[in-house]
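Is glutathione placement plausible here? Inputs below.
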Amino acid sequence: MKLYDSHRAPNPRRVRWVMAEKGIEDVEIVPIDIMSGEHKTPEYRARVGVPHVPALELDDGTTISESVAIGRYLEALYPEPNLFGVDAREQAVVEMWTRRCEFYLANPIMLNVRLTHPALAALESSQQPQVADYNRVAAERFMRTLDRHLADHPFIALDRFTIADIVGVVGLDFARIVKYRPPEELTNLARWLEDCRARPAAKVGV
Ligand SMILES: N[C@@H](CCC(=O)N[C@@H](CS)C(=O)NCC(=O)O)C(=O)O
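Reply from A.M.:
I modeled the complex. Tokens:
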């Protein structure tokens, strides 16, 4: 298998984190330079179907993009440690929180960063500060929801670390490149972030 990866980009980091938690080492890493547009070449588009990283190419030529779908595939091949839930209830709860973290936290943060960081202007047709701010406010609304939830839950979805935590932490960490920090009063969020960042797998490829 080959992972089309971009070292500094957040979505590929989700997959590298899943791989590190599971000790997966038999995936060839193929670096893609998104700043120079390597993901927009006809060859890359033909292989992956969309101009995005990450993408996982299987030995039979199937290519899977979408970081969470790649994670789910790797979970089927390497079930331990479990990151996506072991039964119907857990799987649904993990998916619910993963989607919430993508839609209401990681995506608005990603938009805020892309619409404000000067180096990322190349990826946008125009950078709009008002839209960036709207997205920061939206992300902070969900951070407050998470903070309340994390007051009596060790991790986001289950009593153990899951893909939902990876999506949440990677989203928040991406905001560090614009020197953003979550509001200080969100102490449960801060505790959870610290716990997740302390995991050895959190450091892989950052
Ligand atoms: N939902 C997708 C998002 C993929 C995505 O947007 N990746 C970014 C890097 S983090 C990308 O390829 N950006 C290239 C561009 O915007 O031109 C996933 O989870 O994999």
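Short version: Residues 9-11, 34, 39, 51-54, 65-67, 123 surround glutathione (CB under 6 Å).
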